[in-house]
Amino acid sequence: MISGSLTTYIALALKGFCMGAANVIPGVSGGTMALILGIYEELINAIRSLNLRFLKLIAFAKLRDAFASISWPFLLPVALGILAATVTLARVLGWLLDTYSVIVWSFFFGLILSSVFSVGKVVKQWQTVTFIAIGVGAICAYFLFGLVPVSTPDASWFLFISGFLAICAMILPGISGAYILVLLGKYRYALEALNSTDVEALFILGVGALVGLLSFVRLLGWLLRRYHDLTMALLIGLMLGSLRRVWPWKETVTSLTDSHGTELPALQVNVLPPRFEGEVVVALLFMVLGFVAVIIMNYWESRKG
Question: Could you tell me if 111 and 147 are in contact, meaning their C-beta atoms sit under 8 angstroms apart?
Fold first, then answer.
C-alpha cells in the first residue's frame, strides 16, 4: 500500500500511460515498460491483492474494507494511465506504424536494448544458472517472434482465449500482448472493436484478460518470491529475444489474408538497412534516443530514491 502526494499519483499515471502505449505496439510489452520504470514487482504484488477476500467484501457491499485490503492507491493511477493510452493512442500509433514504421521500431529497439542492461541491476547474484535462464528466455522469445500468424474464428470462446493469452504475455517483459493477438489473428479485430466501440467484443476480450491477469500474476508473484534472481534473469532473456521482433528493417517473404479480408505479413526476415542515408540516419538517431531515454529514466528514479 502506498501513500503519497498528488505528484506521486500523477507519476504513477504517467508510468501507466507508458505501459499502455507500449501494449498497443505489436512486439513491445507493457511489462517491459514496467521493468524500465521500476514498478514491475510492485505491480505484480499489487495485482495479487485482488483476491477472493476482496471479491467477497465487494459481494457483501463492504466497500471500505474491500478497498482497504488492496493496493488501490497504486493500482488506480496505473490502470487509468494504461486505459488512457489504450483509448487515445490506438489510432495514432496505428498511423505511425503505417507511415513511419522504421522510425517507430528503431526507437523501441534502442529502448529495449538499453533496458536489458538497466534491468540486469536487479539481479543480486550472478551465477551460471542465471546466465542459462537468460539464454532460455532469449531463445524462447526469439522463436516465438518467428511464428507465422494464422487466420482464426471470431467466436466468443476464441475471443476469451485471445484476451487470456494476450494479458499473460502483456505482463511478461519482452513478450507483447499485442503480438500474441497478431499471431492469433485478432490484433486488427481488437483495434477495430476499440475504435468502433464494439461493446460485446471488448467485453469478451476484457473478461478473458481479467481472468488471465488475476491467475497469472499469482504464479509470477510466487516465482519472484521463491526464485527472484532466476525469474528476473528469465525475464531479461525474454526482452533480449524480443529484439528480433522490433528490428526496424524487415522484408516480407509471405503474406496471408485474415477473416476480414485484410492482407497481413505472415513471414518476415530481418535485413540490413539499404543505404546509410536519409531515413536510415533518422532511424539510427531515434534508436539512440530510445537507448538514452532509459538511462535518463533510471537516473530520474535513482534521484527520487
Answer: no
Kindly report, residue by residue over 119-157, the tens digit of the pLDDT: 787 888 888 999 999 999 999 888 887 777 777 788 888
Tell me the three cell numbers of residue 156. 466468443
Tell me the β-bridge partners of 251: 269
Q: How far apart are CA 247 and CA 271, in angstroms?
A: 9
The C-alpha cell at 267 is 513471414
Find residue 264's DSSP bridge partners: 256
Residue 75: which of 2, 4, 24 has the closest Cα?
A: 2
Residues 225, 205: Cα–Cα separation, whole Å: 30
Q: How far is CA 175 from CA 12, 200, 227, 280, 299, in A?
A: 22, 27, 20, 26, 25
Query: How does pLDDT run across 244-288, given as a tens digit for each residue?
Result: 888 888 887 666 565 555 565 656 788 888 777 778 889 999 999
pLDDT in tens, 11-42: 899 999 988 887 777 667 778 788 878 888 88
Instruction: Provide the whole-model pTM.
Output: 0.73
- Domains of the chain: which residue ranges? 6-304
Element (H, E) at 256: strand 250-257
User: How many Å apart are CA 242 and CA 236, to the nearest integer?
Assistant: 10
